[in-house]
Amino acid sequence: MPKSLYIAEKPSVAQEFAKALHENLGRRDGYLESENSIVTWCVGHLVTMSYPDKYDEKYKKWSFDTIPFLPDKFKYEIIGSVKKQFNIVKGLLNRDDVDTIYVCTDSGREGEYIYRLVAMEAGLTKATKHQKRVWIDSQTEEEILRGIREAKDLSAYDALSDAAFLRAKEDYLMGINFSRALSLRYSNDVSNYLGNGYHAIAVGRVMTCVLGMVVQREREIRNFVKTPFFRVMADMNWKGHSFEGEWRAVEGSKYFQSPLLYKENGFKERKSAEELIGGLKGIDPQEAEVIRVEKKTVKKNPPLLYNLAEIQNDCSRFFKISPDQTLSIIQSLYEKKLVTYPRTDARVLSTAIAKVIDRNIGGLRNYAPVKANAEEILAGSAWKSIAKTRYTNDKQITDHYAIIPTGQGFSNLQKLPDLDRRVYDLIVRRFLGIFYPAAEYRKVTLESVIGGEHFFSTFSVLTEEGWMKIQYRPQKNAAEKENGEKAAEGEEEIAADNDFLKALSELKKGSVIPINGYAIKEGETSPPKRYTSGSMILAMENAGQLIEDEELREQIKGSGIGTSATRAEILKKLFNNKYLSLNKKTQVITPTMLGEMIYDVVRLSIRSLLRPEMTASWEKGLTGVAEGTIRSEEYMRKLEDYVSKYTDGVKRSDNRAVLRQCFDYASQFYKKTASAGRSSAGGSAAKRAAGRTAAKTKTGGKKTS
């Protein structure tokens, strides 16, 4: 009797498919089998690309004579540690009694690549078996059975497969050629300067761009010059309620457009603020007349659902965990049927899931912390029309919709570590929030005048919690509170209670407010913030925002640096290479001395690798291949031209003298630097020259020196 073969990406996933089939599947070595079906698994990647020495022994030795390395046909090999499982899968793929193969690897580019490599190395051709692709959003039984029932012919995913192979070739060719070229030219200089062993220069299409973002941000912080400013505040009182009014030099003020101003609401020097206060104190009586009262209700809608980047950022902020740890936790929740597929860029629902979303909500009645909320939502009508809101949009979905709870798997929940449960709770609350009404604030803006000088106050009170009552809301620590720069721009709001709001409602144009006195608030501008592991993930996802050129920014809109599946791993690699350092308590990322040196090596040799627009445009090209709008041959030709051009450029250039200046400049910011790195004669001049070079470096795609 012909049998169906199901191939999953991991043993745990294979077990879920086996359970969903409800067949008497007996365990074998590396697979399960019944009268009708066979279920087997990969263990992640079983096949990998071969190193250059497998093409020819001459490539074993790194030499300028053997690069650029651009093979006509790429070689692949079985990973030694999983060879046994590969042979098992290969045997099953080629069994005579198997007529249909269901590809059940993760539903995405990487999962497609894992299976296609195995099928290729196993000698399977499209003509020999009927291959079908199972595409699912969660591992619940009904979703698995739906995926099997609606499985498309594997050929429908050939374009995605092409993109997956090209992505691997791209990373391989750039990594092999650029790492060898730069290491041959500059590794000895880097290693000798540090004096702590040999350092090969590892370069990657995405990895190097991320390194550049961190180093450029660090240099902006170093070169930032703080600017002090002084604001004048009036202490006002209305019906027993004290509050502050902020002075601004608007038209009619003695200081309107004065060169003494830092901005319209602050002075460059304290004495100017003191002079203003001195003049105001001479006015009798000390009362301000209200000339404008603006009252309005402001609505704040629930945020969009989580994609992987958003929840990695929130977990970094709330729980101080790294993106790879967050992904690991959500992957575990996915495999335990608690949430949907984690590696997604979408923050909305699909129309199909929106139609049956009451199942997900209803299941959450079994989750005690939100039981009452789930019941409240189901008793209402918002969930019935969710497909007509901004939270459902098929056009914003590529492979998978947002990460949401399945409403199932609760038997596994209590066995989870506390952190895993907290991450799950975060997903649940974000999900349920979209079925609540907007939060509402009552805002009052007040403008008053004394002696021709204008003072402004803005009051805000939350009148309707709406979705906010169910959201996770951590307390802000001091570092997360509004900084002085924001305050200087007049964006402060005064939190008001209902009693104060009632008193404010009695204010009208012409009302007179007593003034108790004046004060000077001193502040200073703040440098750019360092990236955290979470904010870096978001910056990678939204790389287009870093691009100055508006036309190019629009062209690569939606294309980030890396993918949701790879970004955390890229950061982890940079930490492991000791190019970047991660403060585990704060999740703040900073460059290391080695990382900064590698940055300068690349900046002077293959500068385009540091540009987010270049990295994002390559990613957009891969998306074009997956969507069938760009031919694989065209993409490959451009890739080979790029690799050849810059590899040859490194072979022809020699930037060691300039690099020494850059190394000297950077070394002053690191406590531990090899004595060999200390400049001798001419060191001070070199530092000054390199300092000027570094000072010109800008964030993102801006011009660098």
Structure description:
The protein has 705 residues and is α+β, with helices and mostly antiparallel strands. It has four domains: 3-150, 3-Layer(aba) Sandwich (Rossmann fold); 168-223 and 530-695, Topoisomerase I, domain 2 (Orthogonal Bundle); 228-301 and 439-524, Topoisomerase I, domain 3; 308-433, Topoisomerase I, domain 4. It contains 24 helices and 20 strands. The strands form five sheets. Strands 2-3-4-1-7-8-9 form a seven-stranded mixed β-sheet. Strands 10-11-16-15-14-18 form a six-stranded antiparallel beta barrel. Strand 16, helix 15 (484-488) and strand 17 form a beta-alpha-beta unit. Helix 5 packs parallel to helix 22 and helix 23 (656-667) crosses helix 24. The longest helix has 37 residues, at 158-194. The chain is flat. The protein starts with a strand and ends in a 10-residue tail after the last helix. The model is unreliable at 477-491 and 673-705 (pLDDT under 50).
